[in-house]
Amino acid sequence: MLASDDDDRCQEILRAGSKSFHAAGRLLPSRVRAPIAALYAFCRVADDAVDLVAMDHKALAVERLSRRLDHVYAGTPDDHPVDRAFAATVAAYDIPRAIPEALIEGFRWDVENRRYETFSDVVAYSARVASTVGVMMTLIMGGRTARVLDRACDLGVAMQLTNIARDVGEDAREGRVYLPLEWLRSEGVDPDAFLADPQFDPRVARVVRRLLARAEQLYQRADLGIPMLPRDVRMAMRAARLVYSDIGREIADVEWDSVSTRAHTSKLRKAVLLARAVPASVMPSMPSRAEPPLREVRFLVEAVAQAQPS
After folding, report:
1. How many CB atoms lie within 10 A of CB 265?
2. What angle is formed at CA 241 by the lines to CA 25 and CA 172, rounded to 5 degrees?
3. Percent of the chain residues past pLDDT 70, beyond the cut
4. Alpha-carbon torsion 237, 90, 110, 41, what sign?
5. Spatial contact of 141 and 205, defined as CB atoms under 8 Å apart
6. Mind listing the pLDDT tens digit for each residue in 224-265?
7. Is 143 a residue whose pLDDT tops 70?
8. What is the DSSP letter of 229?
């Protein structure tokens, strides 16, 4: 059980940090709102702890996060509302440490300013910074089977691919590129030259379009997992999927130019998408087919299978 003051702080971080997540989260049942807010708040605070410090302090910030996680799993969290709330959540829902550890590994990759040669490499990064969150959310909502966790990982990767496609210009101006390097080169784009002068280019647009096509395939796979969730959370998860995947439509509307523009979904459009999510609450309880898990996310699902719930 989360202390009310700690929960209030986590809810405040959620409201301020993600309009899309908060909009979909309002459809969640009361039984999971507090722990999911605690999860979001920990991820937000952890990201800020690394992102908002000087470059020469980022590696140290990641190590400090690892120590905070040590304290969370020892049951002696740091004296901070988010750490206390997250410690209560991982204990209550038997979240294996390997999952948030993988999230911190993703932060470490960012600090190292890694680049990703292949699409598989991008998926491996997405597994750490996004599928980890999907797995933890699914455990909180009441799904623990490999089949439902596989689909949660698909959704996490799809959302991160959407993030990457949306933020190409913003990332490039910060000296980062997350697009698969071999895809850029196949279009005749030199990654270093692009980073030196990030300008819209139809060749980059084709890479963005290709990435969003892969994301859409994963959104469709993720849809198969929604009927495997408890009925009272299906609508919220469908809403989150629709709102996030709609960013891809916004990017397509500007000819896949995410260098000089940054796509966003309007409040009115979000309201329409939330309404479309309503039928998810009455979906049949089992999908018609299964899809194999992505190779790059298997370690997350295996970590849950190997954990012994208390």
Report:
1. 19
2. 100
3. 92
4. positive
5. no
6. 999 999 999 999 999 899 999 999 999 999 999 999 999 877
7. yes
8. S
C-alpha torsion 123→299→130→107, nearest 10: -90
Token code pair at residue 301: 């699902």
The average confidence (pLDDT) of the chain is: 91
The CA-based angle 102-108-110, given to 5 degrees, is 115
CA 41, 229, 31, 273 torsion-angle sign: positive
DSSP 261: -
Q: Pick from 200, 120, 215: which is nearest to 158 by CA?
A: 215
Q: Could you tell me the domains of the chain? A: 4-306 (1.10.600.10)
Residue 35 buriedness (CB in 10 A; 0-12 / 13-18 / 19+): buried
Q: Is 154 left (phi over 0), alpha (psi -120 to 50) or beta?
A: alpha
